[in-house]
Amino acid sequence: MSIMLSCLPDGSGCRSAVRESFGRTGRPRAAMTSDPSEVPDLRQRDETDARLLRQVASGDREAFSQLYDRFSGPLYGAALQILRDAAEAQDVVHDAFVSLWEKAAAFETSRGSAFAWAMTLVRNRAIDRLRMRRRRTELLADSAPEDLGYAGDFHAFTGGDSAALDDNARLVRAAVATLPPEQQKALELAFFSGLTQEEIARKLREPLGTVKARIRRGLLKLREALAPKL
Q1: The domain 144-226 is classified under which CATH number: 1.10.10.10, 2.60.40.10, 3.50.50.60, 3.60.20.10?
Q2: Topology of domain 12-129, CATH
């Protein structure tokens, strides 16, 4: 069934509409209208996708809804295979469709199919998420050595089911908001923007040692605030 999306001209309406198209199971309610292997003419399918994307570029909401129905299942499957996390896979697909709405006019058939472009958007975003995970782990290893007790505790808010992750993320953000501004900024850049300590130091124009100290002090305060809750 086609999903009608109430997209505003600037694409902002797509954000909630795409989000609502996922059910409680973590899978898109709509799937590709047909299996690619069952389509006798691959060129015809690609031409249809390209036509829909051109219509999306002109602000056609129905075309965007049809494109979602055609692409969402395979894109979600690819994101889930990379991330192994339903909530993150949903986020990646959601962001990819927002980009399709906003950048549809930039699509060129000479550079590949519309579906291949959408898949590239999803894979790139999924890989970026994996890199951010590693950076967070490395940050804790560098800034919170064993004496802070984070070696085992970090799994409490980076692993588990998606509902628990959402709850824990809210707790962490609330706790970060109570820190002094300089510690808050450093931790937000590290955990929520995925920057390394060196990148944070350059962005804030502060010595690396100062940034490391702020992150360490912030992590100590976070541990005290979150230990009873996580």
Answers
A1: 1.10.10.10
A2: Rna Polymerase Sigma Factor; Chain: A (1.10.1740)
Q: How far apart are CA 105 and CA 109, in angstroms?
A: 11
> The tokens 């541990």 sit on which residue?
223
3-state secondary structure 79-100: HHHHHCCHHHHHHHHHHHHHHH
Over the range 87-111, which residues count as b (16 or more CB within 10 Å of their CB) and which as e? bbbbbbbbbbbbbbbbebeebeeee
Residues 6+ apart with CB under 8 A from 131: 194
Q: Is 227 exposed, middle or buried (0-12, 13-18, 19+ CB in 10 A)?
A: exposed
* Side chain identity, residue 39: V
Each residue's pLDDT expressed in tens, for the chain with a length of 230 residues = 333 344 443 444 444 445 444 443 445 544 444 444 444 578 889 999 999 999 999 999 999 999 999 999 999 999 999 888 888 899 999 999 999 999 999 998 888 999 999 999 999 999 888 887 776 666 555 554 444 444 444 444 444 444 555 566 677 778 878 889 998 888 888 776 767 788 888 989 999 889 888 888 888 888 888 777 65
Of 36, 99, 109, give the one whose Cα is nearest residue 64. 99
Cα 112 from Cα 121, distance rounded (Å): 13
